[in-house]
Amino acid sequence: MESGEELNMRHVISALVENKSGVLAHVAGLFSSRGFNIDSLTVGRTENPGVSRMTIVVEGDEAVLEQVRKQLGKVIDVLKVSDYSGRDIVQRDLALVKVFAPPAKRSEIVSLIEIFRGNVVDISSTDMVVELSGPEAKVDAFVEVVRPYGIRELVRTGLVALARGEQK
Amino acid sequence: MATKGSRILVETLVEEGTEVIFGYPGGAVLPLFDALYDAPIRFVLVRHEQAAAHAADGYARATGRVGVCIATSGPGATNLTTGIATANMDSIPVIAITGQVKTHLIGNDAFQEADTTGITRSITKHNYLVKDIRDLARTIKEAFYIARTGRPGPVVIDVPVDITMAELEGEPDKRIRLPGYKPRTEGHPRQIRLAAAALNEAQKPVLFVGGGVILSNASEELRQLAETANAPVTMTLMGLGAFPGDHGLSLGMLGMHGTPAANYAVTESDLVFAVGARFDDRVTGRIDAFAPSAKVVHIDVDPSSISKTVHVDIPVVGDAAQILRELLPHVRHGAREAWHAQIAGWKQNHPLSYNGGDAIKPQAVIQELCRMVPEDTIITTEVGQNQMWTALWYTFRKPRTLLTSGGLGTMGFGFPAALGAQAAWPDRLVIDIAGDGSIQMNIQELATVVQHKLPVKVLILNNGYLGLVRQWQELFYNKRYSHSHMDNPDFVKVAEAYGARGLRVTDPKDVHRALEEMIRTEGPVFLDVVVAPEENVFPIVPAGEAINRMMGGLA
Fold it and tell me: Which residues of B touch A66 (CB under 8 A)?
């Protein structure tokens, strides 16, 4: 791979952390103090109540990625760090998009939503809230397609991911 | 049977081997201090919490044990932060116990409240806020374990005052639960063999050792390695004392103020064999010019230090002493006559030097001191020219005889660190080599050393300036001495006002006698040495330059 392609590569790191107060602050502080570029960070519960999973998308080259992995691993409450680079993973980002949808435009917008296999979860006389999940690129594409209609508000979870195939 | 939180805390400290605590009381730690009143632990009352942290740090550096300090909530805790950051940068095992407001008041901007865990998160190896008395004993045991294992470091334990007043029925659960912390001590056998092979094949190797060798107590193994392989050894500032400075294989310190022999040798080497060092910028200079023809072997307990700044070819993660022991049987002697001849040439053609003159030369004072004191004398330094001259002109032969703030470079470290070391070693000579700027940062600790009968000697290299700042302003800012000149008090009178002894020397002819007076003083003493005001530390590698591009003082 040429070095030019490595610039600004996005890497997905998944970390299992103890479900304790302060862990999120610690990881965020770590990234900020070491100057790592976080694209997104999500954290939530796992099948184990004492353990949470953090999914972090980091921008940078191999050297940066190696430091990120190692520094994360040093944090006492971080149990395991998995680097999903180069691995086959299921990636999902969930978005709730509130679109300006007056009666005249409604059916157009709904057919776009159907194409993307999203769901209308709220509707009012002027607005519609759409729930859409999928790989980040799909969510990006939907947002661009409805942007001309007027996006009132938008919230995204950021990327979560799990490795495909058998658990090692 | 019910036990009070403060009792549990003190008992657990005793179980973890705590013999001395440095600290300062306050509202949030009153119950704790009540439990300390008749506890089998010696307590040293300082005069500023920063000094408590530095003293615990100095104690740890001088002994290899975990240092302990205590401060109250709010300003007490925030006053510890510089000391904690200092210990963090140099990987020193310290426990800092801070009081905190009552649990139900946390987050309410209560009196003397500070977000101690938030503030110290980035400067500790780990920190804890104890929210339940059932967690107290276990937390302390975990904290000690974390502080002293793997790459050592400071741990803060924030204890709300109501926890120390609460009572626990029955025995506390003390089992450590740290599933996310598994420090690695054993090196990978294959990596060890690769490292040995690289050393055996190298024509121009340099052993490059740092503070990690001292933390791992690996000096003996290092000496055996150097002598078996017949390889020269250079030390970072933190590694001074890990290898005898007067050993034939010693190159002296390398880096920004390193010796020419060390800097040339590393630059010309074909193998940099690093043990317990982190390739800091003060040492490497311009990275792309650092040891350009060398393969790099790096033995370190912290994987994140490997290939962080300089690319490493053969990493070996684990405990230095253990790895060196396993490495030794695979290492062969190498004559390498040409390499040793080249090094001898550098040593002969570029010895360290300074000019004579009418005023007292600080380099001469340090050389003289080194000749006069026993080998097991503990030297602490402050930061700046005092520190660099000590590193260059005092010959350290044993580990844990130089206690200096290398990573953070904290002025005001030396005096309290010295009192901590003295508390650990009451019968050894402990000397703080200070500048007139640095000594004023924690000068109030004169009261501590007098009250607790800690006979620390302070040698003040008094030039009326912030020396190293003035030097940079002279060399790189056209001598624009912007606020680096200081009007100083009479240090003799200050010492005497606190009940210590004060001495002064102004004539080079009187230096030996003055040093003798200082050493022979039974109690704490300040020796004010009035030195040449614009003396510089040479050689110096300007920032951003390669380490073989030194300026000044090359014979």
Answer: 307
